[in-house]
Design brief:
single chain, alpha+beta, Pseudouridine synthase, 12 strands, 26% strand, PsdUridine_synth_cat_dom_sf, catalytic activity, acting on RNA, pseudouridine synthase activity, RluA_PseudoU_synthase, RNA binding
Length: 314
């Protein structure tokens, strides 16, 4: 039996966990096991903060039910009331806040609705040629959340606020973008996917540390960014970086045509977990609405390297 299959069988095997999760047992048999696990960062009476890996959905989405952060925590902790109070994209890794008490859940949800929580992300792109290290810019965009194509669309306008007032469907997205400087990162999965998709290595302006040839391995010098969203729009950060001309490495929707297959809920399919989007929710800070204490958490995830994908060993 493979290692991943063994983990799956042990994880799904406890009947009390299935009952706590309130998930149809058929979903467990139908879905492909996603070989990533969330790590608990904070454990309180009212909430959990976990470090979500890429490719593991935060919540059930109709096709994937059992293989989500929310359902795995419900089963492993034996609690049926654990609910994520905000979103992280499937491909985005990092900190996720979940409520475990229905009586106080709305108070934590309101932190996000009222913009009373500080969120910080980091991402990697190709090296920019029009930013200097430490430079910050305030970026306000107008997003169309329902374009014909996948993802969101940036609506070009000289006055985003006025345009949003005229068309309620359009959403303002405000982000503080800071270029932190160059960093050495292992992006071999991004390069391999790009080349496999028909692109040549020469078409990707990335270079190994200390070398400008672009053909010398997977450890490259890339741009390191901090993103501080002040609104919570779908794909806000990914669309913002693409609009700036620096789509996030591993991107499957914006910028380069590098497509990542979403893990499938259908048995028999073989989802792949590469390339990994180099976007991580690195920090959360807020005043606990129940205790009044200031809470601040940081992810231990290393954005300069892809998350390990467990291998199946026969």
């Amino acid at each position: 039996m493979g290692r991943a299959a063994g983990n799956r069988d042990a994880w799904w095997g406890l009947e009390k966990n299935r009952q706590a999760a309130q998930v149809d047992a058929a979903a467990h048999e139908r879905e492909e096991y996603i070989p990533f696990e969330p790590a608990i960062v904070a454990d309180t009476d009212e909430f959990l903060v976990v470090d979500k890996p890429p490719f593991l959905p935060a919540t059930p989405n109709g096709r994937i039910v059992a293989n989500t952060v929310q359902e795995r925590l419900r089963r492993s902790l034996g609690e049926s009331e654990i609910v994520a109070v905000h979103r992280l994209d499937l491909l985005t890794s990092g900190l996720l806040l979940l409520s475990r008490n229905p009586a106080t859940r709305a108070r934590y949800q309101q932190l996000f609705q009222n913009q009373e929580i500080t969120k910080e992300y980091e991402c990697l792109t190709v090296m920019p040629d029009d930013w200097h290290a430490g430079e910050s810019r305030e970026v306000t965009l107008l997003l169309d959340p329902n374009p014909a194509e996948h993802g969101v669309k940036v609506v070009e306008t000289n006055d985003p606020a006025r345009a949003a007032a005229k068309n309620p469907k359009l959403k303002l997205a405000h982000t503080t973008v800071t270029f932190l400087g160059p960093v050495a990162a292992d992006i071999g999965d991004v390069l391999a996917s790009s080349r496999g998709g028909g692109a040549t290595s020469a078409s990707i302006p990335l270079h190994a540390v200390g070398c400008g040839c672009g053909h010398c391995g997977s450890r490259m010098q890339v741009g390191h960014w901090r993103l501080q969203p002040h609104t919570g729009r779908t794909h806000q950060l990914r669309a913002t970086m693409d609009w700036l001309g620096y789509p996030i490495l591993g991107e499957d929707t914006y910028g380069r045509e590098v497509r990542t297959q979403e893990p499938s809920a259908s048995a028999g399919s073989a989802p792949r977990y590469t390339p990994q989007l180099r976007l991580t929710a690195t920090a959360l800070a807020f005043i606990d609405p129940v205790t009044g204490e200031r809470c601040a958490y940081r992810s231990a995830r290393n954005i300069s390297a892809p998350a390990d994908v467990p291998t199946t060993v026969s």
